[in-house]
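In keeping with the milestone schedule agreed at the kick-off meeting, the structural modelling team has produced records for the first pair of proteins. Each record is given below as a sequence line and a C-alpha cell line. The laboratory manager (R.T.) confirmed that both were archived under the project's standard naming scheme.
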Amino acid sequence: MTDTATEHLLSFVGATLIDNRPGVDEVNVPMIRHWVEAMNMPSAIHLDADAAAATGRSSVVAPAAMTQAWVMRGYAATVDPAKAPVDGFADLIAALDACGYTSVVATDSDFTFERELVPGDRVSYTEVVDAISDEKTTGLGVGRFVTTTKTYTDEAGEVVARQVWRTLRFRPKASAGSYSGTATDGSAPAPTTPKEG
C-alpha cells in the first residue's frame, strides 16, 4: 500500500457513489408475498387489502425491511459482473483493493423510515460516502470502516427512507498453518504463523 493509494481512497469521503438509480421493478404484491412468506411475517396489512383498510391504510403496504430490496441488482448482475452497473461504488471497491482491503463484513445498518411503500411506488436511491476510518486492527484483520448513507426516494423525488450502512473492509489474516513460498530444495516450506498487523 502506498501513500498515493491511501490518499486516493480517502478522497472518496463526501463522494456520491450512486446518483438516483431506480429499482428494476416497482413495488408489487407478488414480491411482497415472497418476502412475507420467506420471513414468516404474520401481519395481514402486507397482503390483505381489507386488513390494511381496517388500520386506516389505503392499500396493502410493503414491509419496511424490504426498502433496500426494491433497488438491489438482479440475479444476472450477481453471476455476470459484466452486467453489473458501472458506478462510483465499483471505483471505491477498486481503491480499497489497491490498499489491500480485499475482504468485507457488514457491521451496522440503521434505517429511518419516512413513509410506507405501497404497490406502484417506484423506488430510487442515492449513496454518498460519509466516512472512511483510520486503519484499525480487528480480530478479522487490519482494515478500515466505511460508512455510507443511502437515501431512498419515490418517483416524485420524495424521501421515503434513509439507511446508514457501515462495513469493515480488511486485509484477511493468513490462516494458521498456511504455507508461504517454496523451499529452495523444492520441498514444502514450514508452516507460517500469522501475526497481528
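The second protein of the pair:
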Amino acid sequence: MNVSDRPSYKLLARMFPGEPERSVPAFDAIAAARLGGRFAGLDEIDALILKETEAAEWPEDVNVLLKALRSGAPDLVDHFTEQAVALYFSTPAVSRALTGKPVPLFPNPTVMDDIDYDLLEPVIANCRGLADAEQS
C-alpha cells in the first residue's frame, strides 16, 4: 500500500494541517517519506481507523475520531499520538517556521535567552512569593 493511501496517513494529515499563513508546513508536505520507518503499529492503527469509519464519514473534528479510536485501544492510540508529535515537531522545517531556528523542537530542549530575574522581584514581593492558587 502506498504510504499516502493509508488511513493513518490521512489521520496524520488532519492532525497536522499546517498553517500556510505562518509558513508552518502540513504533515503531508514534509513527513510522508519518514512515516513507515518511524511508526510502530501502523497496520493496527489502520485497521482501527477503518473499523471506526466504515459505517460513517470521518468526523469533521479530528479529536472526535482520536477519542473514538482511543476507546478501542488506548495504549496503541496514545503511542501513535506520541510518535506523531515527535515526528512532526522534530522536522526542521516545522521548527524553523515556529521558532526561526532549524533545531528540532522535540525531543531537544530549546534554550531560552537569559532572563533578568530582578524584573520578577516586584511580582514576588507583591504576591509574598505565592502563586495565585496558593493565595486564596
